[in-house]
Specification:
Protein name: Crp/Fnr family transcriptional regulator
GO cellular component, one term: cytosol
Strand content: 15-25%
GO molecular function, one term: DNA-binding transcription factor activity
Order of helices and strands: HHEEEEEEEEHHHEEHHEEH
Number of helices: 8
Keywords: Activator, DNA-binding, Transcription, Transcription regulation
Helix content: 40-55%
Organism: Paenibacillus taichungensis
Number of domains: 2
């Protein structure tokens, strides 16, 4: 079991924790199971817990005034989810939906505070995790605001390839079926505009489809469109 969790640690956003501090997290959290379609929390709920994905997937969404959902993040095994400012009685700015039957460790903020008080090196690792979370949010909003919908789409494809990419000959296949509706919700665009942009990228031979999966053929072209800053993979992820 410990070997399995070590692998998950390297895959997820908890890689910033040392093995000892990661073990502190594991023994403190309480295991829960969440069926597909349930929510860990809703936008507006009090932020008093963190969630560690031991098995499964979840997505973080933001609702607009028009009722449209924007997919902000997608998390998988090895990731820790939750508000990054846990000590001010804040409320969640997003909702967290479970995408498949999942096993999740729940960490109460009062227990987190105890860990930080007892282990100063844990506090440093937790600050690193908060920093990664903050940088990820910054780069996401940069993608959505600075370089138009084509830039946001290309950045999203790059992030998907970093999160789910597998070698496919000389190219990279995003080994997860992503619908055009999913992509539109990730960048705040209409499905029709996503269809047009993907068609343009296919004509330019930047991407192709293989059995419903997106294949990245020209990564440099996508990087140029979104003015890629070559962030490390723990930041450049979906």
């Amino acid at each position: 079991m410990r070997e399995q969790l070590s692998v998950l640690e390297k895959r997820g956003n908890t890689n910033c924790f040392s093995e000892a501090n990661f073990n502190h997290l594991l023994v403190t959290m309480k295991d829960r199971t969440y069926p597909e379609g349930t929510h860990l929390y809703w936008e507006g709920d009090v932020s008093d817990k963190l969630y560690y994905m031991k098995r499964g997937r979840a997505q973080i969404t933001k609702s607009t005034d028009e009722g449209k959902e924007l997919i902000m993040y997608m998390y998988q095994s090895g990731d820790m989810i939750g508000q990054a400012d846990p000590f001010f009685g804040s409320k969640h700015s997003f909702s967290a939906e479970v995408l498949e039957d999942s096993e999740i460790g729940v960490l109460e903020h009062k227990d987190l505070e105890m860990l930080i008080c007892q282990h100063c090196d844990f506090a440093i690792d937790f600050m690193k995790w908060m920093g990664i979370h903050h940088r990820l949010t910054q780069t996401k909003f940069r993608d959505l605001m600075l370089y138009g919908k084509p830039g946001a789409l290309c950045s999203t494809l790059i992030r998907l390839s970093n999160s789910y990419g597998e070698p496919h000959g000389e190219h990279v296949m995003i080994h997860k079926k992503i619908t055009h509706t999913d992509l539109s919700n990730m960048i705040g665009a209409t499905r029709e505009s996503v269809n047009r942009m993907l068609s343009d990228l296919r004509k330019k031979d930047a991407i192709e489809y293989d059995n419903g999966m997106i294949v990245i053929k020209d990564l440099h072209m996508l990087q140029g469109i979104c003015h890629c800053e070559l962030c490390p993979n723990e930041i450049c992820r979906i």
